[in-house]
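Why this split exists: single-chain examples teach little about how molecules sit against one another. For that reason, every record in the complexes split bundles all components of an assembly together and asks for one structure covering all of them. Below is a record exactly as it appears in the raw files.
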Amino acid sequence: MLPWSIGVVWFNAMEVVAWVSVWMVGWGTNSAFPLVGGYRFLAQGLAYELPHMFALITVALGAESLDFGEIARAQDGLWFVVWMPVAFLVYLLSVLAMAFWGPFGHPVGHDLAGGAVLELAGPDRLVFEAGRYALLVVASAAAVPLFLGGGAGPLLPGWAWALVKTYLVLALLVWVRHRLPVIRMDRFMTAAWVVLIPATLVQMLVVGIVVLG
Amino acid sequence: MRTVVFWVLALAAVGFGVAVFRVDSMARATFALLASFLCVGGTMVLLDLHYLGVLVVLMMIMEMMVMAVFMIMYMMNPAGLMPMSMLHNRRGALIISGAVLVALVAGVWTVDWPERAGRPPGDPTRALGEAVMGAQMPVMIVVGVAILATMVSAVVLATDRGRYDGGDR
Amino acid sequence: MTLQAFLTLAAALFAVGLYGALSQQSIVMLMMGLELMINAVLVAGAAFWFYLAPASADGQVLVLVAVTVMALEMAMGFAVVTALMRARDVDVTDDAGDLKG
C-alpha cells in the first residue's frame, strides 16, 4: 500500500519504534535497573536521532529522492560516501546508538547489571536480542543503498555486491563492539548537539550547493 | 476494502482517545494516545497522503516517548497503583464536549459541501514539497522561526542553571 | 469513505480531546487533550485536501503546520510545567490560577 517513493521516511519511522520497545521492556518488567536502562535509551535516542535524520536528509537531498532504489541509482558515477563522509560517519554512529551497541551500550550497561534486559530470560530475551541484532543488520544493509552505491561493482551481480557491502559494514560495527569504552549519555548528548548536528548541517549545505550548482 | 479499513481505524482512533482519559497508569495513557495517533496516520495513508501519514507515525512515536517521561515525572500517581480521581468539573466538561460533538456532527452532515475541484496529483509528496518550497514558502519560514523561538524559550524556561554552570555533571 | 465520515471522525476526536482538556486536573493530562484536538485537525485537514481541493497542496501544508504546532505546543507546555514545578511544586491547574480574574 505504501509506495517505494517514501522509503527513507518509512525506514526512519520504523527504527524509532526501537525507542518504544526498549522503554517498554524497561518499564514493563517492573524493576528499577531496567527502568533506568529504558530512560537511558530515551536520552540516547534524543541525542542520536537528530544527527541521524540530518544524515538521511543529506542523502535524500543528494539523490533528490526518498526512494532507496533511486538513491542507489543516483550514485552511478560517484558513491555518496566519497562526497558525504560526514553524513556516513554520523550514520554509522547512529546505527551503533540505535542498536545500543558497543560504545553506546549504556542502556544495557554492566553498571546496571544488564540495564533494560536485566529481567529478561528465556524466550523473552531471545526475542529481544534477536530484534536488536536484526536492527543492527537492517541498518547496516540500509547503509549500502544510502552511501555505498547499492549493488554497483565489477564482476559480481548486484545482489552479491549488496550482500558483500552489508557484511563489510556489519563487520566494522561488530569489530567496534568491545574496542571502544562505553560513553555516558549526557556526554554523548553534548557531543551530538554541539559537534554532530552542526557538522551534518554543514555537510547538507555543501550537498545542497552541489545539487543546485 | 478501504472503507472497512477506514472504519476500523476510525473506531480504534476514537476508542484509544477515550482510553487516554480512562486508564489509571500514565504509561498506558501515553501509549493509548500514541495508538490513536498511529490510527490517524493510517487514515491519512488511506487518503494517499503516504508521506504525511508516515511522518505522523514517525513524529508521534518520538513525541509520545518524550511525553511518557514527563507524564511519569509530573504525575502524583504515575503507575496507577493507587486509584484516585484527577478530574474537576466532570459534568460540565461532559456537557460542553457532548454539545460540541453534536454541533460538529450536525454541521458535517447538513452542510452542502462543494464539489471536488481537480484531481489528486500523481505524487502528493512531490506536490507538497513544491508547495512548501514555492508558493507556501512564507508559511514554512514562519514555522521555522516559531520552532526556533520555541526551542530558545523552552530551554530558558526549563533550565535551572546558567549558561556557564556545568554541562558535564 | 466519504468526506462526512472523515469529518465525523475528526469531530469525535475533537470532542474527546475537549473533554480531556476541560476535565483533567493534571497539566500533562490536559495537554494530552489538546494533542487529541490537534489530532482531529490533522484528520480534517487531510480529508479536506483529498475530497475538496486535491489539485493544490494547501491542505497538505495545513496538515504539516498542524503537526508542527503539536510539537511546539508540547515543548512549551512541558517547559512551563517544569518551571512551575521548580518554582512552586505544583502540577495541577487548580493550583496555578493566579491570573484568574
